[in-house]
Structure formats: C-alpha cells, structure tokens
Amino acid sequence: MRGFSRRLLAVGAAVLVGVTAAPTAAQAHPKKSYVKVGYFTQWGIYGRDFQLAKVQQSGAAAGLTHLNYAFGPVTAAGVCDSADSWADWGVPFSDAQSVDGVADVAGQPYSGNLNQLAELKKKNPKLRVLISLGGWTGSAFFSDAALTDASRKKLVTSCVDLWIKGNLPGLTTGVAAGVFDGIDLDWEWPGSDGNVGNVIRPEDKQNFTLLTAEFRKQLDALSRKTRKHYDLTAFLPAAPAKIDAGFEAKKIFKYLDFGTVQGYDFHGSWEARTNQQSALRVPAGAPDNPDFSVEVAINTWKDRGAPKNKLVLGIPYYGQGWTGTTGDLFAPATGGAPGKFAVGTEDYKVLKNLKSQGFKLHRDWRSGHSWLTDGTTFWTYDDPAQILQKTTYIRSQGLGGAMMWSLDGDDEKASLTRTISAGLWTPWR
C-alpha cells in the first residue's frame, strides 16, 4: 500500500501543478489523520450481488476507518426498526459469499449482513461500523420522532437498544452487541423537502440539534458502562438553503464526531441540460447562478460555524448521465442516459470502460470535474485522477476526511477506495 500511495501522490502532484496554490499536506497538517467512510447498502446483496465479502476481498476494507451500514428506518411509531430483517440478520451466506470464507449454518445465533459485519471487524480490528438511520426513503417520520423531549427519548432508546445493544427481535438478548460502534443520522431533510411524503416542520432545525444531544447523552451513558466510545455522525446537505433551513451548525458539532457533506448530485438527469454533478468549484460558463459545488457547500458550512476538521467530503462512486445531446457541457438533452439500475445514473465500474467504446474523456482541472461523451450521450463522474484532486483539496482545507457513496459502485480492485486511502494516507497511523 505504501508504494501505491507514493505513486498516486506523485501523479497528483503532477496534474495539480498550477491548479492550486495551497500548501502541501505536510506543511498544512504535519500530524493529521483522516476518516475514510464507506457506505454499504443493505439491499446491495440482491440485484447488485455485492456482499461484504467483496469489501474484504477487494482490499476496500483495509482502506476505510468507518463503514456505514445503510439504512435503518425511523417508523411511524417513532422508533428504530429494520427495513429488511432477512437481509440484516436472516439470510445465510455461502462460504464464497462470507467474509471469513466459512458458510453460515442453521442454528447459529444470527446470520445476514450483521454477522458479516462482525466478521469484517475481526479481519479489520480498527474498522468502526455505524448504523445509518433514515436515508432518502426512510426519513418520512424523523420530524415526528424529534418533536418533543419524550418522543426524542423514545426514538433514541429504541435505536440504541436495537442496533448498539444488539437486541434483535426474536433472538437472544444482546446477540448482536458490538457489531455497531455508533450511529449515523441521515435525516433527509430537516426543515426542507426530501422524498415525497416526508413530514416537515419549521422547528425541525432546532429539533435536529436536540435530537443529536439526546443521541450523544444516551450513547455516552452506555459508554460509561461498556468503556467504549460510540461515534455519532450525520449526513449533511450541500445546498445552502437546506443547510439554513435545517441545521444549527454551531451547535450540532458539539455532539457529532463528524459530519459527512454531500459532495454530489449538484446536477443530474432530472434537468434538461448536461452539467457537472460533483465539481470542486463552479465551472466557468455555468448557466445557473447561484450554482452548487464542493467549494460552495464546504464554505457554507464553515461560514455557519461548523469546524472544518469535522467536515468530511462525500465523493460519488457513480455518474449522472444524459442522452439526446451534442456531448458538450451545458448542452440541451432529451433525457437521462440508460443505466443498469436507474435511468440517468451508472456505477463507476461501468463508466470506466466507456473510453474503449468510443467515449472521449474531458477534464476541467481548475473547476475539478470530468465527463465522458460519445457525441450523443454525456456522463459526469469521478475517476481516480479526479478523486486525487479532491483528496488534495481535503488536505489543503484542513477537512476531516472523505466519505464514499457507495462501495458497490467501485470496481473489483477497489480502485476508487484505494485512491482515497492513498490520497489521505498518513504514515503515523
């Protein structure tokens, strides 16, 4: 890994000459370690055929400090529950699908992804695993659950009981204790629109702060008994309007270990022209004003009082695509490009092969984004070179690290995760 790190950092230094005048990482942060957070999706074991064994076998696990398991919903009753208990603790995995290479057997205490997470932690003792609560389709009732002191206590108690204490329904008490090392709050979004049907209130902004305080209080109380620290993190939006509507930046970071900032979906196939989805800076000639970028998002959080060393930049492992276009940036398009699992999106592991199919790669180093086009189809995405530019940005800005959505989009060699690990490598860890 160290040789790999040196080669990537050398490439990064070459491509970034003239792009930024920021100090080198050694000058800016001589003794800083970075978090590297990868999301693993519960449902990925089905159509995507992506098991936690592949996170281990590809080498991705070795490059992470945290793995977020997505998602655990908040129910209409205001408690934590499993979205799919079969995936979480029921499904048996074969020897080829298991992290430790041993097949699950009838009668073992529990199976499913949670057992595989436990096996992954045995292979990677420094890896911390968090349960991510909510998500795009699981946030409908967060506002109700956060509304009063009693409802907040009820929600947090249920989440800690199920996920941290490991009290899985119908199984031995505490059977999955120790699988999770903390909780990631993925409420999309307090105080502003998310998925259709979400409950939204103006007071969500203050209630989110109170909810983080209650999570921190109960996790710390458990820590005094177990003598373990439990992480509390949150997934945070990029849009300034959503930040202002839902988050008290100066207050919430008193309770959070760090927050992951969405660094993608700035634009996508829901729009009628091609664009960037994850640029570091707003590109020259961008038709939207104001516009979105990593720089806009991070600066907004810092301006609102968030500590920069607790801001973790989200990086996409997929691209946004359009078809019926000339292939130029900011060109009109007729719709989303075909994707395997959804129109307008495709995994990096697929997009990386398009250059051999007649697509031409374009880069804008100053703005920090890249795209592929064959003249009629356009994909904006991040590849290892672009990601290395982002790790340089993370270092130069003194940020807390990088987050990856999601691990199943990477290739079999975990090229993107290895690049992030190398770009944020510190020899003193």
UniProtKB/TrEMBL annotation:
Residues 1-28 form the signal peptide. It catalyses: Random endo-hydrolysis of N-acetyl-beta-D-glucosaminide (1->4)-beta-linkages in chitin and chitodextrins. Its EC number is 3.2.1.14. Pfam families: Glyco_hydro_18. GO terms for biological process: carbohydrate metabolic process; chitin catabolic process. The keyword Hydrolase applies. PROSITE patterns: GH18_1 (PS01095), GH18_2 (PS51910). InterPro entries: Chitinase_II/V-like_cat, Chitinase_insertion_sf, GH, Glyco_hydro18_cat, Glyco_hydro_18_chit_AS, Glycosyl_Hydrlase_18. Residues 34-427 form the GH18 domain. It is an enzyme of class 3 (hydrolase). Keywords: Carbohydrate metabolism, Chitin degradation, Glycosidase, Hydrolase, Polysaccharide degradation, Signal. SMART domains: Glyco_18 (SM00636). One of its GO terms (molecular function) is chitin binding. Belongs to the glycosyl hydrolase 18 family. This is chitinase. It comes from Actinoplanes friuliensis DSM 7358.
